[in-house]
Specification:
Nucleotidyltransferase, domain 5, five-stranded mixed β-sheet, alpha/beta
Length: about 200
């Protein structure tokens, strides 16, 4: 295969370490030679910068070249977080038009996608713009899900913690119990937190 025929997609996820909400993945076909200033791992950027970069990516990338995949908290509890992450990634990849022939996966583990070669890249979201773009799409999409969920259950402060195990989130779980979007299979109780009821 000649290099000019290579169609590369970056793949990343958001929300693996959360106690509530889905895990969200994105896959992005990256145009050869294209660079976007300021694009890096979404965790290194604030909310407004991520939103700005997402808008720039949507304007620059052709239709069908990026996609989102979601795996619900129920699926996470059923198959475990690692398999649910792979499921979300596969759901994103299958939507890409055209299908890529190389996948760059952030991290060190991946369930092979049928008929597409993949390569795992440790800290790839900071080293490959294709993966950085996927990181931006996945993170901004998941943040919107959690902001909407916050409107229904403000006591968990998902607008601030996005479902991650902050102290306030865990205290609220102890006080109010679990919602339907909490991951029931996750260990979340901290013995250092003492509450009197």
């Amino acid at each position: 295969m000649k290099s000019k025929e290579l169609l590369t997609a970056g793949v990343d996820e958001a929300g693996r370490g959360c106690l509530a909400g889905p895990v969200v993945a994105s896959a992005v076909i990256w145009p050869e030679g294209f660079k976007l200033k300021g694009l890096t791992d979404s965790k290194k950027l604030n909310f407004s910068k991520r939103a700005s970069l997402r808008k720039s990516l949507e304007e620059a990338l052709p239709n069908g070249s990026w996609a989102i995949g979601v795996s619900s908290s129920e699926e996470i509890d059923k198959v475990n977080i690692l398999q649910a992450t792979f499921l979300a990634m596969h759901r994103a990849i299958e939507q890409l038009i055209p299908q890529p022939n190389l996948l760059l996966i952030d991290g060190n583990r991946f369930k092979p996608y049928p008929n597409i070669v993949h390569r795992c890249e440790i800290k790839g979201d900071a080293r490959f713009q294709a993966i950085s773009a996927a990181s931006i799409f996945a993170k901004t999409h998941r943040d919107q899900i959690m902001l909407k969920a916050h409107m229904e259950n403000p006591q968990y402060e998902w607008n601030a913690n996005k479902g991650y195990p902050s102290k306030n989130h865990r205290v609220a779980m102890l006080k109010y119990g679990l919602t339907e979007i909490h991951r029931k299979s996750f260990k979340w109780r901290n013995p250092q937190i003492k509450l009197d009821f």
